Every structure is written in C-alpha cells, then in structure tokens.
Amino acid sequence: MHSLFTLFILSSLISSITHACFITTQWDVFVMSNIEDDFVAHIKSGDDDLGNHTIPFNGNYNWSFCDRVDGRTLFYAYFWWGSKYQSLALFDDELRGPCFVTERGYHQQCYWLVTPDGFFVSGYNRTFSSNYWTFKAHWG
Ligand SMILES: *[C@@H]1O[C@H](CO)[C@@H](O)[C@H](O)[C@H]1NC(C)=O
Ligand SMILES: *[C@@H]1O[C@H](CO)[C@@H](O)[C@H](O)[C@H]1NC(C)=O
Ligand SMILES: *[C@@H]1O[C@H](CO)[C@@H](O)[C@H](O)[C@H]1NC(C)=O
After folding, report:
1. CA-CA distance, 109 to 123, in Å (whole number)?
2. What is the CATH T-level fold of the domain 24-137, as seen in this structure?
3. Site residues for ligand 3, CB cut-off 6 Å
4. pTM of the predicted model, to two decimals?
5. CA–centroid distance, residue 53 to ligand 3 (Å)
C-alpha cells in the first residue's frame, strides 16, 4: 500500500515535469490576425468563458487547456469584424486532425489564422501563402 502510494506520487511528479496535464494532452490555441483592422473574439467552452478580446493586425490571443479525459473538449467562438460576423468551433474532436503533430506528444499547438477571406487552421504557424492552412469558414 505504502509503495503503491509512493509510486503514484513519483509518477505524478514525473508527469508534471514532462507536461502539465497528467494523463491528457495540453493544448495551446492561438488566434492570429491577418486583418489590417481590429476584430473582436469571444471564446467559450461549456465550463469557461474567456470573454471578449480585441485582436489587432498581426496580434494574437492564446490560451491553454488540458484535454478532457473523454476527449470531448469543445471551445467555440463568436467573431465580429466591422459589420461582419461568424461563429465556429476553435477546438473539438474534428479539429484534432489538422492541429495534431505526432512529434509533439502530450503538448500540442493549434493555430488559427483570421483573414479577410475567412478562418484557417493548422498545427504549424506558417506564413499564409503556404498550403499548410485548412480553410474552415468565410465571414458570415
Ligand atoms: C463582445 O463584443 C461584441 C462585439 O463588439 C458585443 O456585441 C458584445 O456585446 C460583447 N460582449 C461582451 C460580453 O462584452
Ligand atoms: C500569448 O498571449 C500572451 C498574453 O496573454 C502574450 O504575452 C504572449 O506573447 C502570447 N504568445 C505568443 C506566442 O504570442
Ligand atoms: C507566428 O509566426 C510569425 C512569423 O514568424 C511570428 O511573427 C509570430 O509571432 C508567430 N505567432 C505565434 C503566435 O507564435
């Protein structure tokens, strides 16, 4: 019993050193602007309301979370740019696909690029001209 407990403490310690989420993946999500104007993003999940954030040209808003044990993490957002509006999921089971990079293991990054043409997602922060961005939605 004692040694089991010690083993548990030890493995928790090792785990917290290698990544912050114990048994699930830590995700960092970046919402980057490629629009030469401010826009507003309101990001939410079932548990968290990250509030309204104004994102300037070439700026980004980012946050991190631990994936749910059942994998059913969902973050979605409302966007306003002048008279334009859109709402879409920024992280869910489907978005693991374009975001997941095997070599990163338990600490992953998901990049969103917001442009005048719409919303693009990638596991890599690359320049927009490359083919690495997956188109997700136009402005409404
Ligand atoms: C967030 O910003 C939008 C657009 O400017 C506005 O309509 C909305 O009321 C704001 N929401 C909050 C909670 O401030
Ligand atoms: C993430 O956002 C913080 C502010 O919340 C900022 O200081 C930091 O530079 C951002 N990270 C990157 C990689 O831009
Ligand atoms: C993305 O890459 C650009 C160009 O290298 C860099 O200026 C920017 O800070 C990066 N953004 C994030 C969120 O890492």
Report:
1. 6
2. Immunoglobulin-like (2.60.40)
3. 30, 32, 60, 125
4. 0.87
5. 18
